Amino acid sequence: MPCLTLSTNVSFDGVDISSILSQLNSTIANILGYPKSYVTVSLEGSIPICFGETEEPAAYGEFVAIGILNPDLNKKLSAEIALVLHTMLLVPKSRFYLKFYDIEGYNCGLNGGLMVVETK
User: Fold this and answer.
1) Does the pTM of the predicted model rise above 0.85?
2) Structurally, how many domains does the chain consist of?
3) Looking at residue 96, which CATH number applies to its domain?
4) What is the rounded CA–CA span in Å between residue 92 and residue 6?
């Protein structure tokens, strides 16, 4: 169950957040080849962020997945998520930092138990 958590200093006033969440969900699901129902995305705006000594539009994210991440996949995810942020929130790609975590299923809870997944 991949999960993307994003924080940005961009204000969401007048922004269609549902559209951004939907685009991020679809992007991740398409790259991973997973159903959209498996992907979780959270987005928080108006967070004070100083990136490179300025408070210009920026974003920070964390992407967690179970047993599937690798350098090629991470590069694709980073590029496509950055593109969505640039297109929909005007966050320059150079001002977006994304951290990846590849965890074991026993380190993730679901339905009151532990996540059990089959690896591809």
Assistant:
1) yes
2) 1
3) 3.30.429.10
4) 15
